[in-house]
Queue: 4 jobs
Job 1
Amino acid sequence: MDLQYWIWIAVGLSFTLYIGIAIWSRASSTKEFYVAGSGVHPLANGMATAADWMSAASFISMAGIISFNGYDGSVYLMGWTGGYVLLALLLAPYLRKFGKFTVPDFIGDRYYSNTARAVAVFCALIVSFTYIAGQMRGVGVVFSRYLEVDITTGVIIGMAIVLFYAVLGGMKGITYTQVAQYIVLIFAFMVPAIYISFLVTGHIIPQIGFGASGTDGALLLEKLDGLHKELGFHEYTSGSKSMIDVFCITMALMVGTAGLPHVIVRFFTVKKVSDARKSAGWALLFIAVLYTTAPAIAVFSRTNLIETVNNKPYKLMPEWFNKWETTGLLSFNDKNDDGLIQYRGENAVNELTVDADIMVLANPEIANLPNWVIALLAAGALAAALSTAAGLLLVISSAVSHDLMKKIFRPNISERSELIAARISATLAVILAGYFGINPRGFVAATVALAFGLAAASFFPAILLGIFSKRINKEGTISGMIGGITLMLFYMLKFKFNWFGGGNQSNWWFGISPEGFGTIAMLFNFIVTITVSAITKAPPKNIQELISNLREP
Amino acid sequence: MITDKKTQYWKKNIKYISVLLTFWFIISFGCGILFVGHLNTISIGGFKLGFWFAQQGAIFGFVIIIFIYIFLMNRLDQSFKS
């Protein structure tokens, strides 16, 4: 059957499923809208968290980035999984025990201050908006490549779907659609991986396969290291980044993960404290399935790519090569006019540029897999982007309707009006995110990676110290959060956007890139918070009791 | 609950957390980053060991750590109720 039919069937079926779930799980109270009535089973919450967490970037870009960077790509693998250990051990159980709706809720109550609450709302909005715009863009790219509509139409279709189930069902609708989306996306990711692993190495488990030897008897990783050396790339299994930078980026991503509001809020939806721990465990297990497969796909596709194109005549390239050329994500420039493709590490002689994003999407075509596998991949990529967008949307809408309106500006608002306000702010947030998806600004792509640094520099110390110290007070936390996020924003604007005099790699502080600077900004936050708290007076008695209560089983 | 018992519960919890976070640090930042060069001289199952930790082992380890904590805390909660 024709590829286009397969894609319409896969995408159509999955969308029908999401809409069906949305109609079945409408929210009728604010508690259902914000935290799904706190009645979600830990296993279901684990799946929902996994889908919430794995965005278009995890699904489409990550394996490609690892493919091109080898060992250096490990920062994403460890960074985006290790944060769950911090969540399960240090944050999630206590936040569940606290039992409110949002992260600013916790910060506002624990630090007995609406100023702290407002600072938290501001941080939550910055982090979530930078993130969601990237998701809508991802939806647009997948639609335009696979369904052959233009990006604008793609984004609008995506917006309509998310709007439908997020506005109708709130957290309840989002949770159960995310469960379905996890199943779609993991199936879509694993089928081609297993297929290719079996074709190349004879192992059906990709995690074992990429350490094994290929059909020619040579170990895949050794062969790849050899090819890389020969062509002038850095060795695949060792890195080109400095150790301190790798360390700091990994730390910033881990701590940032644990501080992201849309991840934390998922743990408010389970019944009890022990369920919060359990669902963190399930979530990481479900995430690990994709994250341990991605480096295997990276190796298979890298070897495949080099062997298919390098030193081969341009005229004999298969169909997928030309198809991706028209998207601009792949380009060939015959510098020495010999009609052969020279793929080299050195810029002066390299003739082929490949965008990292196409590795996962083109992989099945490069490996000649059947059409239904490619269609599945399209549905999976959409599931990954939509599920993350919906989770972020809820954080934005609850920050506006609950934290700002109900808790700060209009405490007397009725339950019904708050629910209406939540739905209106969700709608506005989708429209704004869609606008950025259709008209991407340079800053959007650059800031998605930095959202982690911002979360690490603002939320993580405030929440952690709020639980593990009774001495930290509102003066300390407010100055720490403002100090941390300001320092992070400053570094980001200086080295990513050339403000404040700009600078290049040689000017980085301690040799740390903007992506890794969240670690330094977080340490700065800790120091400021602790120092300021020490010289101002301890929190009142009722707050100390609240903290004792959080620590009980 | 009696205050003394509560303090004990919290102290035990802190002990579990510190031990498990030490392992968390060793398998990722230790084996995957700081000592990756040394471990790469060893090869197992077609992988250089340091590289394997950075791209596979650390992730498996994280999952195991969380499930150990779930087990320990459930047991602690139980002994508390009785």
Note: The longest strand of chain A covers residues 330-332.
Job 2
Amino acid sequence: MKDISVIVPLHEINETIEEYLMKCLQSISNQTTKPKKVYIVHSDTKEFTDFFKSWNKPDGIDVETLVNKDKTDFCSQINTAVENMETEWFSILEVDDEYSKNWFKNVKNYMESYEDVDIFLPLVVDVDEKQNFLGFTNESIWAMKFSEKMGELDNNTLLNYQNYQTSGAVIKKESFENIGMLKPSMKLTFIYEFLLRATYNDFRIMTIPRIGYKHMNMREKSLFWDYKNHPEIRIMPEEAAFWVEQAKKEYFFTYDRAVEYEN
Amino acid sequence: MSNNDQIIKLTHALEKLTSKEAAIYFLTMDTKGQAKASVALTYDIVKELRKNNYNALIMHEKNDFHDVTTWLGDEYKDIPHVSIESKQVEVILSDLVIIPEVFGHVLEQTQEMPCEKLILAQAYDYVLETLPPGLTWRNYSVGTCITTSKKQEEYLTTLMGNLKYYNVQPYIKDSFKKLQEPQPPLISIHTREPRDTMKIIKSFYLKYPQFKWITFRDLRNLTTKKFAEDLSESFVSVWVDDISGFGTFPLESMKCGVPVIGKVPNLKPEWMTEDNGIWTYEINQIVDILGNFVQKWLEDELPEQLYADMESTVKVYTEENFKNSVISVFGAINERKIREVRMNLEKLTPVGPEDKTLEGSVNELYKN
């Protein structure tokens, strides 16, 4: 199998997150075909330093921690890890999420059949905090006459539908770097903007029609939960619309242009 | 008719049979350009017989018979056809007319034909459709029936035990093959009644709205090539055909590596086991079985054994076995006809032919 690294970005550490972390790493240990390396990216706070001094690394996987000193947002953490890794492909695993056990085995099968694909999206199962099934994500491109080519995401489809999930996806490192990686300033729509930019740059993006990733939707205190509920950083509908429009303007540009929302 | 006339006729028939020049007419329905498995099998038999130097032809009722190559493929374009309507067909003693079970209504009309008639019964459910109550094919001077499975033969024997039965084993064409890439989330569906197809699709989307993005493909009215392509591009197929005589579709599906969810037909196919598909006696259970199967497929939790059992089931239905059965059946029929003509000749010429002009040819034939 072509080498894959998994990136786990961490923004905080506490008992609950520790529990999630061990569970998400376990989902890598349980893979029938294992990735080569796991990078946990975190800031240089004392909590993290203390935690990683004494934590119990899970067996069967090669885990390395990376300290991201400056920008500690999600996009910067991913970009930092990508810059530091040596594998040809990578995947992002959010701490409260899990891979399904055959995900990397299926990725391997698809890589053998579709050599020119740049991003393999998983069929994502969205669950709530009680693990209740909420729905699928990334599945729609397999619906008849939805996208230009069944199973593949294209720019026109993205301009009309925004809800796609890159967590769990397996992304070619070189392609990711060539188009400028993630843009931290695209506050709410960094994934959407990235996918628009990728399709604009002729990336071939395919959903593997097998459940590959379990995503916890709107976990309390998660970034998107805060955007919806936190009184200080809550994003109102006008701002959300702004970020969607901004993504549609910015994807033509390779690098981040420090966009800001002005009320 | 004088003895001599009869001897001439029989001698001529014997010549035709031994040289395989005797015509074997396969009465065939007009598909009007729509794919039909039973007609495809008829063409395959004719093709194979011709390859083995038998004079097999397709016989049809009307002059404006639709060309089957549009859906069956160009490889059948050289098969000769004759039309009854053209009145140019002259059937003689040595010939054989093969009548499909659905053409029972022509039995009365063909009773006066000077040649032997045979029934080709592929759909056991239709055999009584055109027969008056209490009558069998034997009443129309038909003593032989070719079927496509032992199961059909067993059933037909219970109805008409006084016939000689043969089996031609259909084969699954090599155009049915596994997709090289991983299978996409498409479901192929093939039901005898179109309303069953719609009922299953609509019920599935109502019961499992989370799977609305998964597309069904109705495999009706496709060319053989497109049918095989579409089927292989599925991850599961659904089959409902209560009166199926053999069950070609599920075997084609298995050859494509596509598991089948199906309703057990009234005549359970001989290849059907508990492990080579997901079978139910209740049509209303199909949607739930399918929903469960889809979930398992998406989770990649299907047992490998299912795929192994499918492969071992279908591997016996090879073209080689089909060819052997065709040649064996028609070889046996031809041999029997030769024996019968010889016996009749012997009856007419207990001490040898009286007419010296016939002596050479008859004697020569007797030597064979």
Note: Chain B has a mean pLDDT of 92.
Job 3
Amino acid sequence: MATLPPSVGRRSRNWIPGAKGVLWIGLLAPVFILGDRIFLFGRLTGGDFVDDPVELIQHWTGNTALILLLVGLASTPLRRLMGWHWTIRFRRLVGLFAFFYGTLHVVSWFVFDHQLALNPIIEDVLERNWILVGMLSWLLLIPLALTSTSGWIRRLGGKKWNRLHQLVYPVAALGVLHFLWQTKLLERDPVLYSATLVLLLGVRWLVRKK
Amino acid sequence: MPRNQHPHPSEVTPESIYMDRRSFIKRASVAGIGGSLIAGGVWARQKNAPRVEGTFDDDLTPWETVTGYNNFYEFGTGKGDPKKNAQDFRTDPWAIEVTGEVSEERVFSFDELVDGLDIEERIYRMRCVEGWSMVVPWNGFMLKDLIERLGPTEDANYVEFTTLMDRRQMPGQNSPVLPWPYVEALRMDEAMHPLTILVTGVYGKKLPPQNGAPIRLIVPWKYGFKGAKSIVKIRFTKRQPRTTWNEAIPREYGFYANVNPEVDHPRWSQATERRLGEFFRRDTLMYNGYEEVASLYDGMDLQRYF
């Protein structure tokens, strides 16, 4: 009986590594679903016949990136309102996967729409506002991904690091604007994401003011 | 009728073969040989030449995509919504009102309207204003044959097509995304062009509701949205009618809407397009490759009349 593990107290965080493993699987799932739908015609995960694989890749990766950005941004309001401090432990992973999907999104556009031809890419970015804001969103995310390690937090110091990582607000705003701007008419999802973003930022503002 | 001779529906290769071919195209494209696709004319090939084997250009888009990837906002704005929401759509009985500058204004049943008209197969490219395209084997008749039978008056300069308005059957009409009902129109010379057809079938089968059953317009050198679906009214007018997309966003969608790689949509380039199922974009052709219509627009500033 003496070999029983120590009782798990309320404040124990022993479950976090396990949960991180589950989270990894969850965060990778969109890639597997996408691969299945395109290369295995949905044999593993189902889904409708894919008429336009490139459209699916681009929508799927961009959409996933935006959702993960919003999920990452939900951590602070959840901590302040609900006291869910454990959410901070998962935020970096979520943010890095937002960057991962954002990068797949941008690279798929480089490859499929422009076959990596630099001039047309630059032209498109400069001429089309919705592409420009999308590109800015991704570019601003790069320094955040690079400085996400504990080493960089130490090197920059908490205050500086926090300031740098406030870039996530313009990143999310530009990303959502990119989605909003791209549709032919106002559609549900971009409106929903915009509203969510406004809500998440609004809560920060309200709770801080108290 | 040599000019408009087209293969009998039975000569169209079954969809399954195109499906295989398409997955081959996919793999070929991934392997990097897709970039060298040659642009050519479906119409020209249909008219003069046997199918050129060994080129991937202008293969038919599979039935599943033609009937499952649709812009028909009356049934929802998602590409899969029309197929999902249109299955119980009733097309029988169907009445079509002919009105305006015409010798006799009257209501026809669908059967009366198409009775005796020569239904043929036309394989056309379909270029959507959003930047994707398909190749579709339509079954239909020349609009000009119908117009000649209806007998418009001297004052008829335009012909307008109205889609059914029925909120119960068309759930998308409950949302104010567009000013309903959907209206499209052509100048009379465009309507009389032998390429312009009214379509009642696809792939040799009855037109499915998500594609605009029982009768829709196809104008292959224009962006797809000009092709009004589920038509209940044909009106001949003296003045240019108001058309739905043009009315909704005039800056982005013109009355003419001719496919033109030189005139960009304000938010995206129209120089290239993605053929559904392919990975890389191909060049968009002037008038969608139907250059024979160019004379209709002689002297017009196409940047202005887009």
Note: Residues 90 and 172 of chain A are 18 Å apart (CA to CA).
Job 4
Amino acid sequence: MLQVEAIDKSFGDFMAVDGANLTVDKGELVAVIGPNGAGKTTLFNLITGQLKPDRGKVIFMDEDITNLPPYQICKKGVARSFQIVNIFPRLSVFRNVQVAVISQQRKSNTLFHPAQGIAVEETSRILESLGLIGKARNTAGSLSHGDQRILEIAIALGNDPKLLVLDEPTAGMSPEETGATMNLIKQLAETRGLTILFCEHDMDVVFGIARNIMVMHQGRTIIQGKPEQVRENEEVLRAYLGVE
Amino acid sequence: MAIFIVLLVLPPIIPRFYTYILTLMFVMGLLAMSLNMVLGHGMIFQFHHGVFYGVGAYTVALMLTKTSLPVWLGFAAAPIAAAVVGLLIGWFCVRLTRLYFGMLQIALGSLLYVIVFRWYDFTGGDDGIYGIPMPSILSSSKNSYYFILIIVAISLMLIYLILKSPFGTTLEAIRDNPQRCEAVGVNVRRHQLGAIVIATFFAGIAGVLFVVLEKFVHPDLLFWVLSLEIFIMCLLGGWFTFTGPLLGAAIMMALRTFVGIYTEYWTLILGVILILLIFFLPEGVMGYFLAKFQPRAKEVTERGYE
């Protein structure tokens, strides 16, 4: 479904992503792991168009999406969440998700029809499935950090994506919240049949749920494969786990 | 609504001078509201909104003095002309963000101001155009009051509907977080440009109403000082509220009129008020009142959900 081929991105002299490769098949739950600064977030920004790569290709559903702007990539069916909370702080929780659903339904330019009556059902369903419906009327900026992270995912679901890209969905969460969020992601993958690509720096969290793992180090792909393969790879042990 | 009815019955009761001041408040109020559509609801730094007001006013003035086309055609053409200029200037400006957007707009707007100011043969230069003929039905101050009141009311209703529509909701989402908006599939630049065109259209309507009221135009309508004044009206009244700019316009006009009688340094008083405002009411007058009365209601709903 998604192929990233030998992609490069440098900031000045620093090679943030250096020939990374990644394959995501339909229905899979794929994790990208790597220590801080490995280039995970940059890689995700390259996939969803926030950054333009220096070299390399991003192919989604047999279509080259490498240099498309983010809004067009989203329309192709790739929705994402961000590592740093990236919501609409002044709008209500409901509106946050509704904006995405409205965009998905190609109604962003509708004038003279109250937004109150549009996309209500879809929005409510998403909020309900993520347990945010009770806070629908609160201002998004007033939610707790954990809830804002969940709202991140809810907004991305509003686009009814084929591929959901989650950039460190558990960043800044307590261990309990992390566990709950991982369960939620697993559940989304199973019940909705969503293809999910996420990244995470905590290895234990990843091995719990992903059956397909890509390891990044210093911008390069070390290996992509099953957890057992990854665990046995010497280079991974050296680079990531600090084993000499 | 109650205020609207009060305004309907006022003119026969109050002196003519106050009717005039009220009418001017409506015109400036609409202008400030049109600016706030993109400023408070879109966080687009439209620093030179006055230009589009001026374009609207000049279009109707030129059509009424230089052609024999029907008056109503002039009235209709002016907002469209303002929107076209809005599209042209906006097309360049949306490529930049925030302050840079504002700076470029001031530059392009000032260019237009200089053209109007210098082109004596066509625009009358710094003399402006006086004695613009109005249909007799609009010539009395009472009739023009009602005409302007009704047009302003309709315009505000339309602005309200637009802000509550999916278009307006998306605009507010762009205000809060343009990057995220792009990630949910919104073409941010095109959406902002659309909002600018709509806002400049309403600024053009305000320009027409100015001509109906004053029956003259002068280049100061396009001068950046006026743009700054309406910007301040939005901040003063509360730019994150719907009616705030209207209130801000009323306060500014009242200050100018009533303090201006006693001293020509009324801007000094305005300056002091602005300083106090920044320290004590950062969300504007209307923002302050809404915040004062709403938190209780919000607390109740939050508890209700638990």
Note: Chain B touches chain A through 31 residues (CB under 8 Å).
